[in-house]
Amino acid sequence: MDVIIENILPLTSQILGFELVQKDGSDLPAFSAGSHIDVFLQNGITRQYSLANCSSETHRYLIAVLNDENSRGGSRYIHESLNVGDTLKISEPRNLFPIQASTQKAKLFAGGIGITPIYAMAHELSAQNIPFELHYFARSKSALAFATQLHEQFHGQIFFHVDDEPESKADIQNILGIPQSSHHLYVCGPNGFMDFIIQSAENNAWNPEQIHKEHFAAVAQDTSNNGEFSLEIKSTGQRITVVQDQTVVQALQENGYCIPVSCEQGICGTCLTHVIEGEPDHRDMFLTEEEQAMNNQFTPCCSRSKSKILVLDL
Predict the structure, then answer these.
(1) What CATH code is carried by the domain that includes residue 133?
(2) More reliable by pLDDT, 236 or 215
(3) Domain boundary residue among 192, 215, 238?
């Protein structure tokens, strides 16, 4: 659907907020905290951005975009090319990072731009009178997006931890405590940050079922040992070779098979494809370990094959 950029908010020197509204001022499709939208940019790139505002707001979506120094073309284009009044094509919201219905108390952890879905969660938990703590980590106070709003709206529940203020250093063990079964932890941010929080939680007896995460970027993969393998299209029997420096999606596209892709990193699940035979080499961060072990689906944007042939349900 098409939306209008109603306002652009300078949240930090490197983060811009974008308020998106319907052209005719009508309500936008409903969403829940943790949802994201796909943004289809005019340079041909599609990117996902979490909705940061309260889910009770029907008149706008609020996203925040970091001008990433390692941008693959999405964030840089947004920062340099978009203006108030421009039209953006977006998807309806979808939620891969929801607040669990069994949550009676929540620990929220945000690192950097990972505050966006966590901010929406704070709104929703507050509206439902579910107690929570929000711990927001950044390199400096100037890098904290929504800092004023968070302090005003969730005073006593929000805790800032910044690298250049030693007195704000987090005592993770004390913050996590020993959880009850109705306690849930939600974390979003850089991969190293999330690994630290999750490992600390598991060391404090948090069960994996109580820990929920959302990745913004995939872990770098070693592709030096990529081998050549073949795909077989079940419906036609056609064989397609995937060479070392090629993704499955690229090989399929070159042979006329259009696989929808979005993040191209194995994070969003847009390209998820059913596997009938063979053993995928799973390199995604979307499927759970249990789902990967079933070997009946994989993400062709980044995953490969351990077997010489993968038979795909295409």
Answers:
(1) 3.40.50.80
(2) 236
(3) 215
The per-residue pLDDT for 196 is 95
| Residue 221 falls inside a structural domain | no
Residue range 245-257, pLDDT digits in tens: 999 999 999 999 9
pLDDT band at 262 (very low <50, low <70, confident <90, very high): confident
Domain boundary (95, 123, 156) is at: 95
Q: Which of 212, 47, 5 is nearest to 121 (CA)?
A: 212
As for how many domains the chain has, the answer is 3
